[in-house]
Design goal:
Rossmann fold; single chain; alpha/beta; elongated; 8 helices; 20% strand
Length: 217
């Protein structure tokens, strides 16, 4: 099964031999491919809505993987099977991801690996990890009509984040999409600053943010 660039980047971060729960499973494409390519012996396709989960069930049956890719109607990571060791959350906004994490603070370290692609506020996600002893292990950027940043992290070992890490990520400075992505953000910030008066309470904060990006680039 051919994955999108975004899902392919997530696929590449999944440790071989892990058992994955894909939260918000997007027709089951990722867990199916992980099993087909023998990265996982078992994977769970999870969604809180019956209609998308039914689409995943249809795809699982079409691929004849009913014994290895298990559909689950679940809200976030509530009541996942005990054999899950890796969590994938992709295609959601930061506030939804934050809610899933904060609703399960006591069990976050239970899982060896987290792989998250947030559609919004990736910097806030990194800062949340900094506040909650999360350690980023790897990151990637893909462009698919939009710039997507993908984080792999754990709650037991890895690199402690600095303020710049929260904003720009770890080890992304040499990534071929790093400069194009931040130049795109700079253009958006420049446009915002043109639209608001300097007396606006947000002006200085946005201006300083823009300046810091320019310094890094």
């Amino acid at each position: 099964m051919k994955l999108s660039k975004r899902l392919e980047a997530i696929f590449q971060m999944v440790p071989k031999g892990s058992i994955v729960a894909d939260i918000g499973c997007d027709h089951g494409f990722l867990p199916i491919t992980l099993v087909q390519e023998k990265i996982c012996s078992k994977a769970y396709a999870c969604d809180l809505r019956e209609k998308p989960l039914h689409k995943a069930v249809e795809m699982i049956e079409k691929c004849q993987l009913q014994e290895q890719v298990i559909p689950l109607l679940r809200n976030g990571i509530d009541n996942l099977p005990d054999d899950v060791d890796t969590i994938v959350i992709a295609g959601m906004g930061f506030e939804t991801i934050k809610m899933i994490l904060e609703n399960n603070l006591s069990i976050l370290s239970k899982y060896k690996r987290w792989i998250i692609q947030s559609n919004t506020d990736v910097e806030q996600l990194r800062y949340w990890l900094y506040q909650h002893n999360g350690f980023i292990l790897d990151e990637d950027i893909v462009y698919e009509g939009h710039y997507y940043q993908i984080l792999s992290f754990s709650f037991d070992e890895g690199k402690k984040l600095t303020e710049d890490d929260c904003l720009f990520g770890i080890n992304l400075y040499q990534h071929p999409l790093f400069k194009p992505m931040w130049k795109y953000h700079l253009d958006k910030l420049h446009h915002i600053l043109e639209q608001i008066p300097k007396t606006n309470k947000s002006y200085e904060e946005i201006h300083n943010y823009k300046k810091r990006i320019e310094e890094i680039l």
